[in-house]
Write a structure and sequence with these properties.
Number of helices: 15
Mean pLDDT: 85
Strand order of the largest sheet: 2-3-4-5-6-7-8
CATH topology: TIM Barrel
Helix content: 25-40%
Number of strands: 11
Distance between the termini: 42 Å
Strand content: 5-15%
CATH class: Alpha Beta
CATH architecture: Alpha-Beta Barrel
Radius of gyration: 20 Å
Order of helices and strands: HHHEEHEHEHHEHHEHEHEHHEHHEE
CATH superfamily: Aldolase class I
């Protein structure tokens, strides 16, 4: 095989020998002009992991509150309850449950992310709600929180990481979302999310989750003020964490979106940077089974191309009435919902086999459906953890959040 860039010969040799790539290798991959060989190598590594399969999930996506005091400079979603009360929304437990089943029960994952909201982010709110989900929807996996939210709850309840993980696991937590990783490099992290969970605690929490049998995902926010060195350092730390405590299902590159935040001067990532990042992640993370191209972020067309650059997952459909607000507040134009038939069409057009999954990659026939699960108003008792009515204002649509994740 001829190479346009000689450095790719050594990279391929290491990949064939099963040798993890180094920092220098990762930098070379980001800098190479030989994008075609980069894609070929990443595609081959993907097919070594999952063959011709490309995964998707029927899920529900809910942002339960936008109140957050973390003050991350890249965020357009968070609202200060005192400075901008007109933007604040906060869902009661009953509202979250009702939203999840609003369009039926034929889904395999509930994905919920909020903010550092003192009036919602507590075990008193979440444990009863999680148990209610498990009782009513036993076929659905709970993919909840980020490490930042769990650390906040641990501090609030004066619990150690093992203690808080045990409480959440016993209530039915199946998977923890990969957000809040951002960039691990300390100097950069201090500039973009100084009040959020530290890199070391993010890794410690995910490793504790894995030890207790709770799966998780991992992310990296790229395209802002970070350096290429920061990106490769981030991937190596994730790889080393997976060695110490296996349990990461997938890695998701999160492209920075600039609308309405303090880092807007950084602009948008390019399509070339996006697909290169998928490929580099696939080649660096030899002990991760899956690389996810989340269509909500890069858009369906880029994600379809990403399947040729190492990605093997396009994430979830969302419910037809779901409203993702984090990236939409920052300017994404990718819509809110994708019919699973469209996922299958795009995957097949790219030459791959679409496979329906759940959070932990159990596989399902495309037309699988749960047994009849009537969810009536009787399944929606007023929760003892429901918030006072005055604090439960919920916008009718994401348009209530001015486009200023």
């Amino acid at each position: 095989m001829a190479f346009a860039d000689p450095i790719m010969v050594e990279v391929e040799r290491k990949l064939d020998a099963g040798i993890p790539l180094s920092m220098d290798d990762g930098l070379a991959l980001y800098r190479t002009w030989d994008i075609h060989t980069l894609g070929r190598l990443a595609r081959r590594q993907k097919e070594r992991k999952s063959g011709k399969k490309v995964f998707y999930v029927l899920n529900r996506y809910i942002n339960s509150t936008n109140v957050c005091f973390a003050g991350c400079t890249f965020c357009s979603f968070a609202a200060d309850e005192f400075k901008e009360p007109q933007r604040v929304f906060r869902m009661t437990a009953d509202q979250v449950f009702a939203k999840a089943v609003e369009t039926g029960t034929n889904f395999n994952q509930i994905h919920i992310v909020g903010g550092h909201d003192p009036r919602q982010l507590s075990l008193d709110y979440w444990l009863p709600l999680m148990r209610r989900f498990k009782a009513a929807l036993p076929h659905v996996q709970l993919s909840l929180f980020t490490a930042a939210e769990i650390e906040y709850m641990a501090k609030r309840h004066r619990m150690s990481f093992p203690q808080i993980v045990t409480e959440l696991k016993n209530a039915g937590l199946d998977n923890v979302n990969g957000g809040a990783a951002e960039i691990f490099a300390e100097a950069t992290r201090a500039k973009i999310c100084a009040n959020k969970v530290s890199a070391s605690n993010w890794l410690l929490l995910h490793e504790e989750l894995h030890r207790q049998g709770v799966a998780s995902n991992a992310t990296m926010l790229y395209g802002h003020i970070e350096s290429i060195e920061d990106r490769i350092d981030h991937l190596i730390r994730l790889r080393e964490s997976q060695e110490r405590s296996p349990g990461f299902n997938a890695f998701i590159p999160l492209a920075f979106h600039p609308d309405g935040n303090e880092l807007s001067y950084c602009g948008w990532t390019t399509g070339l940077d996006d697909i290169r990042t998928f490929a580099v992640a696939r080649l660096m993370l030899n002990n991760f089974d899956h690389i996810k191209a989340y269509w909500m972020i890069q858009g369906l067309k880029v994600c379809q191309v990403a399947l040729e650059f190492g990605a093997d997952d396009m994430d979830g459909t969302h419910g037809s009435t779901d409203e993702e607000m984090i990236y939409h507040s920052a300017g994404t134009q990718s819509g809110q919902y994708v019919d699973d038939r469209e996922f299958r069409r795009l995957i097949e057009e790219a030459g791959y086999l679409p496979v329906r999954r759940n959070s932990t990659y159990d596989e399902f026939p495309w037309d699988w459906a749960p047994d009849a699960l009537p969810v009536s108003s009787a399944a929606l008792p007023e929760s003892s953890a429901a918030l006072p009515e005055s604090s439960a204002a919920l916008p009718e649509s994401s348009a209530a959040l001015p486009v200023s994740s």
